[in-house]
Amino acid sequence: MNEVFSWIYEFGGILPFYSADLGEHLRGFDVTCTNYIGSPWYAYAGLVLLGVTLFAYALLYHFIDSARFARRGHWWFTVLVIGVLNFAFAFALAWSSVHSPERCKQLHISTGDIVGFGFDNALVAFILFLAITSVPYLRYFSTNCKYTTFWKP
Amino acid sequence: MARLFLFAIGGTGSRVLKSLTMLLAAGVRPQSPRDYEIVPVIIDPHKSNDDLKRTIRLMDNYQAVVRAAGTGNGFFGTSLTTLDRLSPTADRLSGSFTLGLQQVANTRFSDYIGFNQLPENTKALADLLFSGRSIDKHGEPAQLLDIEMDIGFVGNPNIGSVVLNQFKDSDEFKEIAAQYAPDDRIFIISSIFGGTGAAGFPTILKNIRNAMSNPQLNGRGVLENSRIGAVSVLPYFNLENVPESPINRADFIGKTKAALYYYQQNVNEAVNALYYLTDDFTGSPYKNDPGDQGQQNNAHFIELAAALAVIDFLEIPDQALTTINGRPEAPVYKEFGIRQDAARIRFGDLEDQTEKLIGMRLSQFVFFQKFLQEDFNAALGKQRWSLDEPQLSRQFAEDTFFRSHVLEFIGAFTAWLREMDLNQRGFAPFDLAASLDALISGRPAARRFFSRLDGNEFNNILSKTVKGQTYSSSEQKLVSLFFHATQSLLISNFNYHE
Q1: Domain extents for chain A?
Q2: Counting beta carbons within 10 angstroms of the beta carbon of residue B1, is it exposed (0 to 12), middle (13 to 18) or buried (19 or more)?
Q3: Cα angle value B57/B58/B60 (rounded, 5°)
Q4: Which of B377, B384, B387 to probe by mutation at the A interface, max A CB count within 10 Å?
Q5: Based on the number of CB atoms within 10 Å of its own CB, is B441 exposed (0-12), middle (13-18) or buried (19 or more)?
Q6: Helix, strand, or coil (residue B365)
């Protein structure tokens, strides 16, 4: 799971928003700097991202499911909230783990890397929400948001 | 489908027909095992009567809605049709809801009866029968024999009975006789205190019951034994006292008594179900317009009650309306009452049966009109109910069906409610200016914890209603969807029961 999330966060290595050292740390590079047996931070961040995004989707499309909140403006507001939450969580997660004494000290990680990871997490959440809400089959079960996507109505 | 041939005579006839059209649009229908198609025939020589014109326009719009959306959708659930549509051979008829009275326009009554060509002794008799003064269509005093009949019979049933007797030779009557089937029924709406209605009702009734003696008619045996209902409206409004006018309220009572006496001898026993309606409430007077100024009166609750007589008549079982040799076996006579003598009637003032019949349906239509007027355009292309196929798009809202027929009908419905509200006695079951949750006077919406009944909640209900439904066209979707959504809204928010 950690590998899957690392691949997603690093976009298969094509589009890194942070240094390779932070990537190593998030993969769970251990305190002895020899193996990946430390905490799987990618998996933690990924699971929370999934949870937050799916919860927000369910909230907008199925729990609230209101004519009042069925416009594309509400979609963008929801995705903004998802992005902020995921950014904040990823930033806090990376910051606290990087500043923990139990990490490989040979990895050079800057605050810019941590901000980049937070942004990365928000971007992945955005893409996930976009993907979920672009599948008509899922939206079909919503009463009022059946047609709500990033571009309409 | 069985038919109801509905004769609406004079100004009151048109106004009652208007109320009936509103009720039918709202989905009020008789609790009868049989569906009826209604064939209105308006009999009024006063073609420029504004009430007549409003009613015809209203029925044209109703017909256009039904033609596009069909029946069976709740709202506009009963077909209204013109005589010419009943058979392919009826194309000689005009295609309008009115009976074409011959030689009435620009014709003096004396010319109509050929007064100058009459033998002297007959002329003297005619002079005696039609003596007196009235006003002409220009509002000038005139001898009764000299009045032109463009504005009706100006409260003179003696003239009306002569002119309206041409009904028996009319193409419309022949067509009705040819089309009349054993399951069909006839209903006649008239007032008793004026000229046209008081004369027209006995004349039409006589010609139907005596159909066997009219060799011009096909199917006259069936027509003679037809099931006939009628409502005769007694004085129900106050009138300005204008000394020079040929119409005054004081005459209403005398004319009514005279007509009732005549009806007792000649009419009552020939009708299967006869409804008498009146109201002695003295409210603000109507403008005294004998007809030369258009004669447009505000809608009145009594006209609504008279329209309910039509519904009631269609609910009477066939076996209670048996007629043999042109004589009903057991004629029934009915009146209409309300629970409380209120100056402004609300639903709670009506008897249970009346409230059950019209309360929910009229409320549904009021919610429909309120939404169309205030929230419809903003929701088009944005809410699920409008986006599900077939779409109710902005283009749909620009089309003739919606813009001309639906919105015009809705506008007339709103005006009708307002007029009844303003009239005295008033009918004011709705506060049209209020928000949705306070729209039904004296019956606020149930309290809600997390939301209020507003346009968004209405949209919610519409989108819930549209789920899983299929519609044959946008027009049918509009009518059916709003009927079922407003029904659901009233049940869940106003404690109505289906």
Answers
A1: 2-139
A2: exposed
A3: 65
A4: B384
A5: middle
A6: helix
Chain B: residue whose CA lies nearest to A70: B383
Hey, is the C-beta of A73 within 8 angstroms of any chain B C-beta?
Answer: no
Please judge whether A70 and B388 are an interchain contact, meaning their C-beta atoms are less than 8 angstroms apart.
no
Q: List CB contacts (< 8 A) between A67 and chain B.
A: 379, 383-384, 456-457, 459-460, 463
Domains belonging to chain B, first-starting first, are 2-105+154-336 (3.40.50.1440), 108-148 (no CATH), 358-494 (no CATH)
CA distance B286 to B111: 33
Residue labelled with tokens 């034994």: B225
Question: What number is the average pLDDT over the span A43-72?
Answer: 96
Give residues with Cβ within 8 angstroms of A110, minimum separation 6. A19
CB-based contact A144 B460, cutoff 8 Å: yes
- Written as six digits, the tokens of B264 are 């007792």
Residue with tokens 């009506």, as numbered in its chain: B350
**In angstroms, what is the C-alpha Rg of chain A?**
17
Per the document, the length of chain B is 498
pTM of the model: 0.91
User: Do B384 and A68 count as a contact with CB atoms less than 8 A apart?
Assistant: no
Provide ipTM, 2 decimals: 0.89
| Rounded-to-integer distance, Cα A64 and Cα B464, Å | 14
| Cβ-Cβ contacts under 8 Å for B24 (sequence gap 6 or more) | B38, B62, B76, B77, B78, B80
Q: What are phi and psi of B270, to 5 degrees?
A: -100, -5
The pLDDT of B123-139, averaged and rounded, is: 78
In angstroms, the CA B225 to CA B208 distance is 9
A147 closest CB neighbour out of B387, B456, B459: B387
Contact between chains at A144 and B381 (C-beta distance less than 8 A): no
Size of chain A, expressed as the number of residues it contains: 153
- The tens digit of pLDDT for each residue in B324-355 reads 999 999 999 999 999 999 999 999 999 999 99
Phi, psi of B148, deg, nearest 5: -85, 145
CA distance B470 to chain A (A): 15
The model's pLDDT over A15-25, given as tens digits with 9 standing for 90+, comes to 779 999 999 99
- Is B456 close to A67, i.e. CB distance below 8 A? yes
What distances in angstroms separate CA B341 from CA B47, B344, B425, B440, one per listed residue? 36, 9, 10, 20
B353 burial (CB, 10 Å; 0-12 / 13-18 / 19+) is exposed
- Inter-chain residue contact A67 with B464, CB threshold 8 Å: no
Q: Quick one: which of B387, B455, B383 has its CA closest to A144? A: B383
Task: Check A143 against B464: CB less than 8 A apart.
Answer: yes
Cα–Cα distance list, A82 to A126, B3, B418, B448 (Å) = 7, 63, 51, 30
Query: What is the DSSP annotation of B404-424?
Result: IIIHHHHHHHHHHHHHHHHSS
Can you say how many angstroms the Cα of residue B270 is from the centroid of all Cα atoms in its chain? 23
- Span B157-205, pLDDT tens digits: 777 778 888 888 888 898 899 999 999 999 999 999 877 888 899 999 9
Task: Judge whether A60 is closer than 8 Å to chain B, CB to CB.
Answer: no
In chain A, residues with a C-beta closer than 8 Å to the C-beta of B382 are: 70-71, 153
Instruction: Judge: A147–B384 Cβ closer than 8 Å, yes or no.
Output: yes
Amino acid at B469: Q
Reference B461, options B471, B451, B470; nearest CA is B451
